[in-house]
Amino acid sequence: YYSCFSDICFGDSITPISSEVQAEEGQAVTLICNYNTTSTGTQYLFWYRQSPNRSPEYLIQTDTYSGSNRKDGYETRVDKDSKRVWFKISEPGAADGAVYYCALRPTVIWSSRAVLVNLTVTQFHLYS
């Protein structure tokens, strides 16, 4: 969201630390986004997943008031001082290989404030 006055624009943004992340099956993985906003109120941050040939699905959210949230093997937390949000998948499986979106509220998944991280999950084999 951007607003302009006298050719000076202010806006919110959110960007991933890395746009490509690799994980091993069963090994925890964390995705990280930095955000910036001109708003001084509570910020709401969302995570979505889009599997191949599927619509995006909402996974979890957090906000700068509560700071963290856990749900269904996912964990997210936000640090309002560093303006960074983390998303952790405890035990990723093959089905978790997808495009993930971190978004800053108010949001529409395809807006300029939703950005993607492509997560590839590979099988890990331990041989003795």
UniProtKB/TrEMBL annotation:
<keyword id="KW-0732">Signal</keyword>
<keyword id="KW-1279">T cell receptor</keyword>
<dbReference type="InterPro" id="IPR013783">
    <property type="entry name" value="Ig-like_fold"/>
</dbReference>
<dbReference type="InterPro" id="IPR013106">
    <property type="entry name" value="Ig_V-set"/>
</dbReference>
<dbReference type="InterPro" id="IPR051287">
    <property type="entry name" value="TCR_variable_region"/>
</dbReference>
<keyword id="KW-0391">Immunity</keyword>
<dbReference type="InterPro" id="IPR003599">
    <property type="entry name" value="Ig_sub"/>
</dbReference>
<keyword id="KW-1064">Adaptive immunity</keyword>
<dbReference type="InterPro" id="IPR007110">
    <property type="entry name" value="Ig-like_dom"/>
</dbReference>
<protein>
    <submittedName>
        <fullName>TVA1 protein</fullName>
    </submittedName>
</protein>
<dbReference type="GO" id="GO:0042101">
    <property type="term" value="C:T cell receptor complex"/>
</dbReference>
<keyword id="KW-0675">Receptor</keyword>
<dbReference type="GO" id="GO:0002250">
    <property type="term" value="P:adaptive immune response"/>
</dbReference>
<dbReference type="Pfam" id="PF07686">
    <property type="entry name" value="V-set"/>
</dbReference>
<dbReference type="InterPro" id="IPR036179">
    <property type="entry name" value="Ig-like_dom_sf"/>
</dbReference>
<feature type="domain" description="Ig-like">
    <location>
        <begin position="16"/>
        <end position="122"/>
    </location>
</feature>
<keyword id="KW-0393">Immunoglobulin domain</keyword>
